[in-house]
Specification:
Among the domains are: 3-101; 300-399, Alpha Horseshoe (Serine Threonine Protein Phosphatase 5, Tetratricopeptide repeat). The chain has helices spanning 3-26, 29-50, 56-74, 82-92, 105-112, 119-129, 135-141, 146-162, 175-196, 204-218, 223-236, 262-276, 283-294, 301-314, 318-330, 334-342, 345-348, 352-364, 368-381, 385-398. It is mainly α. The radius of gyration is 24 Å and the shape is elongated.
């Protein structure tokens, strides 16, 4: 394998592990990222001249440790770094191989997803640090400029350093809340990719699944982590059938099941069963259970209504109530569903799925004029061509 391709493969597979090992030693995310980037640049030169080392990961870590030491030496406040330099020098002399590199990624995940950072920044920093996406790729996912995203990431690293955010796994008293923050970040990465589709550049759905698998390995026997991965797999298994040949989005009940990834679907179902058998239900397990029921034939809408009621106890939001109202309509109780949706109008007026759901239920209730108006509002708020095509077809059916 050519050095450039080998380096790209190592960074894709092990960047998060290498970066986490460097942060554990330097306690400085910015310094660790700079050192790893400089080491990667050196690798291209050295590997081209001398061939691939026996352990590319170990070579990169040792080179990065050396770059970090050089960075300390260039620092004007050299005296306060002497202890850190001595520790790094000892690690650099150890000639680590791939097996000897400790896996500090869980600590890095908790750092990137710290509640002191705003949600968008948590997502961006996680994609950059753990998944190894470039700043340009992260910027594309948010439709930001590369410069703006670079500044956001720099501010995040500075905040982590300035606020003294610890590079550690939270203690037992804080672990559940902090783990939920991590899982929410992973889920937001997935939904960002789900909405954007191929236009996002990098496949963010796959990146989220990669992170969820990593968490299952790093936090074993945790039902909410298993539930989160199950949710992503059950949803992503239907990806190939989400859009009809005419470009319109399709709900699960209208999709061609022959296009579903049944291997992924079955893996998600097994994970969900494992999580539920631990008898410690949480929001991600409930969402995964809803996704599993939506993949069944026939769909058990009354059971989904009950699950949304249970989910509302964990997440008392208007969006959960909207989804429950849609399930109530699918269960055959149109007027009750419409009453539930109308009660959410002031909270969800700017939320496109609210208007789409309201239009559909109004149409089923025979209120054509109101449905037409609601479809118009939903189309105006739609962010993808597939959603617009789907809603336009339903609007045309009214005519």
């Amino acid at each position: 394998m050519r050095p450039k391709a080998a380096l790209a493969q190592v960074l894709r597979q092990d960047r998060g592990r290498l970066l986490a090992a460097l942060v554990a030693r330097t306690r400085d995310l910015q310094r660790a990222e700079d050192a790893l980037q400089e080491a990667a640049a050196s690798a291209l030169v050295h590997w081209e001249r001398a061939g691939l080392p026996a352990s590319p990961q170990g070579w990169l870590l040792r080179a990065a440790l050396r770059k970090a030491i050089d960075g300390y030496r260039r620092d004007a406040s050299l005296s306060r770094h002497r202890e850190a330099m001595a520790a790094l020098a000892g690690d650099e002399a150890a000639e680590p191989d791939a097996q000897a590199i400790p896996d500090e990624r869980l600590r890095l995940i908790f750092t990137c997803c710290h509640p002191a950072l705003e949600q968008k920044t948590r997502v961006a920093l996680t994609l950059r640090s753990l998944c190894g996406l470039t700043t340009a790729e992260v910027a594309a996912a948010f439709l930001d400029s590369e410069t703006a995203m670079g500044q956001r990431l720099s501010r995040a690293r500075a905040k982590i350093a300035g606020a003294g955010i610890a590079f550690r796994v939270p203690g037992p008293e804080d672990f559940p809340d902090r783990l939920n923050s991590v899982l929410t970040t992973v889920y937001l990465i997935f939904t960002t990719g789900y909405v954007a589709g191929p236009e996002a550049g990098a496949d963010l759905c796959e990146e989220a699944i990669f992170l969820a698998r990593l968490l299952v390995a790093l936090v074993p026997d945790a039902p909410e982590v298993e539930g989160a991965l199950a949710l992503l797999l059950l949803t992503h298994a239907r990806a190939a059938a989400r859009v009809a040949p005419d470009g319109a989005a399709l709900p699960p009940a209208a999709q061609d099941r022959a296009l579903w990834d049944m291997t992924m679907l079955r893996e998600g179902e097994r994970l969900l069963e494992t999580a539920l058998n631990r008898r410690s239900a949480g929001p991600f397990q409930i969402k995964a259970a809803i996704a599993a029921l939506q993949s069944a034939t026939p769909i058990d809408w009354p059971q989904i209504v009950l699950l949304y009621a249970r989910l509302h106890a964990f997440e008392p939001t208007a969006v959960v109530r909207l989804n429950q109202a849609v399930a109530v309509a699918e269960a055959g109780h149109l007027e009750a569903a419409l009453a539930g949706i109308e009660a959410l109008g002031s909270e969800l007026d700017a939320y496109q799925p609210f208007h789409a759901a309201r239009a559909h239920i109004l149409a089923r209730c025979g209120r054509t004029d109101a449905a037409r108006s609601a479809y118009g509002r939903a189309i105006a708020l739609a962010v993808t061509d597939a959603d617009r095509a789907f809603l336009a077809a339903r609007l045309a059916a009214l005519e």
